[in-house]
């Protein structure tokens, strides 16, 4: 019956890899899905000391990943010259529309609201576009960071599962 445990680990591994690739899809909560998969593994196979440590680090990485998009996106916008009010308005619009409509709409409206807020404040669409483009570049950087976080989650789980 050892093959059942091996098969289960491979199913979890394939699911983790699919979730990692899913980080390229906007608004897909890949780190959270990966965290849930490792929790499922821990509840099924047991945690033990190594598992508890790995799962604790995975949890911290997951929480950090939740903030990466906003931190890097807003930092990029700030670097691109966005003003404080725009940096307050855009994430609020994005959060509200993500909840009320869909996360994809929330992403689109975050960018649009930053652009229009900057345009209103600066009366120059080129400066507004510069700040919005900088935010989009920041979001691209966030994807790269999230891919690294996902790879770390997979590595930690593999150490735990195949120790």
Q: What structural class do the secondary elements suggest?
A: mainly alpha
Q: Judging from the principal axes of the Cα atoms, what is the shape?
A: elongated
The helicity comes to over 70%
Distance between the termini: 19 Å
Mean pLDDT: 90
What is the element string, with H for helices and E for strands?
A: HHHHHH
Number of helices: 6
Number of β-strand runs: 0
List the uncertain runs. Answer: none
- Please outline the major beta sheet: none
Strand content: under 5%
State the domain count: 1
Give Rg in angstroms. Answer: 19 Å
Summarize it.
The chain is mainly α.
Would you write up a description of this structure?
By secondary structure, this protein is mostly helical. It has one domain (2-161). Helices cover 87% and strands 0% of the residues. It is built from six helices and no strands. It is elongated, with a radius of gyration of 19 Å. The model has no long low-confidence stretch (mean pLDDT 90).
